[in-house]
Task: inverse folding
């Protein structure tokens, strides 16, 4: 049984990495929007902005309201799994966008 600190620390690290990758994506997509002015790139910028905000909110919950997750290791694992899945998805987008 993992401790809450370990699981939430891992989730926090993943949220931080997600934010960094989303900032890279946002920069790429902003440059593309300036060049092409297509609604798709503007939509991708909005997508990145929303996910950055979502990850910032998640980080604030991890640091200020960790007690919400204290009673349930399954909730902690679910939070970590969701952060991990988002990291994988954003990583794919970053690799493809950098090519």
Result:
């Amino acid at each position: 049984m993992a401790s809450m600190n370990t699981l939430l620390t891992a989730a926090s690290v993943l949220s931080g990495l997600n934010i960094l990758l989303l900032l890279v994506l946002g920069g790429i997509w902003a440059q593309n929007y300036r060049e092409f002015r297509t609604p798709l790139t503007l939509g991708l910028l909005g997508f990145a902005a929303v996910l950055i905000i979502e990850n910032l909110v998640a980080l604030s919950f991890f640091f200020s309201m960790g007690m919400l997750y204290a009673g349930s290791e399954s909730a902690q694992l679910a939070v970590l799994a969701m952060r991990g899945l988002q990291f994988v998805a954003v990583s794919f987008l970053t690799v493809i966008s950098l090519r």
Q: What stands out?
A: DSSP finds three helices and no strands in the chain. The two ends are 41 Å apart (CA to CA).
